[in-house]
């Protein structure tokens, strides 16, 4: 036993020393980036220790002290953190840095190497296959899904009328989960009606574990992580999530085969043409000569679930919070809604209605500026890259601190002030000041879908309820997990809307 322990210790120390030496080598080559003083071996890892509610303040403080380009050594993992406009534009637009940062490996057990986590030829091929799935002719079909699940949300919110305050986030996140499940897989999971289902619980667990691993010295290490309880929780959750996805894929594939390979052209029991799900697009791509295996399809469906659930829930919840505090903005949104819907204020929205909600779109953009759903995201250099003649060595993670970019007063005067009119007057110059959906070749492929979903859901809420400040007043505690959330919820009051 002692020999085994000694061997494991030697292996561990060898890995630590190699990682430390590699980090020092990269650090020396990045002498043109401001370096933060750190501890031996640990580097700057202690800067990120503590509760996730302090992460944004800690990172913002580092930028305030050291400038817009800083080198961060996370226990031997070299990173460039950036809020610099020119550098961000270079990183996001160059085809030399298309790989995601190494922290994305924490969700690969669930997502595999789908569109979000893959790189190279595989990513290019997947992007080419998936792009048609977000054509407006297909997105238009999902408005029905938004409406149906939004109606369930309204019925649930009616139970809160008259209460002093309640946390709206659980309602919104379950509605978003229902929408993305039905849109991605073509089948409802009824999360709003069964919020304690295993699927809902496992999705939440995977999102939480991903963030914990990125900030924990022990769980960040692939050698030590299997010794933790979270590793075994993750294995169980991933198996259950994959079982659900595989079952749906097999069912839809069987239906495809029965329809002669024409996914989306079969009809339901009432003779109506079935709506395409993203899964159907993947299956149809297979039948049209671009074959995807069962595992390939599962990766992309699970990726939709990850990217399209918590991000939109976060954005909608913070928008509701801001609207509760700014009644003048809420009234202006209502004026636009009245112009669109006229006397039939509670009718279902259609695709053109959502396109016409210009001011509501500005509200959502400004809300995403103040509370970006993904406050930071990363790239990784697979080869040496040169920026303005300066070397970015192979093996460097580059973390774009979007929260800092969006709160920089040089980019947005009075950055803490909620002013949707910024985006009515936006002239389009310096587009890399506003990148909540990333930018360049690896921008968010689903951003149009997300904006339609958020417009439809918020429109329905606002046409049914007045959104009021809570009693007593409520200040969100920002928690930077994989997605930005409020650690103490988002508390509001609602009253029945009178027209």
From TrEMBL:
Q: Which Gene3D superfamilies match?
A: Cytochrome P450
Reported cofactor(s): heme
Provide the GO MF annotations for this entry: heme binding; iron ion binding; monooxygenase activity; oxidoreductase activity, acting on paired donors, with incorporation or reduction of molecular oxygen
- Which superkingdom? Eukaryota
| Keywords of this entry | Heme, Iron, Metal-binding, Monooxygenase, Oxidoreductase
Under the heading InterPro entries, the entry gives:
Cyt_P450, Cyt_P450_CS, Cyt_P450_E_grp-I, Cyt_P450_sf, Cytochrome_P450_Monoox
Q: Which residues does heme bind?
A: 444
Q: Which family does it belong to?
A: Belongs to the cytochrome P450 family.
Tell me the protein's name: Cytochrome P450
| Natural source organism | Phaedon cochleariae (Mustard beetle)
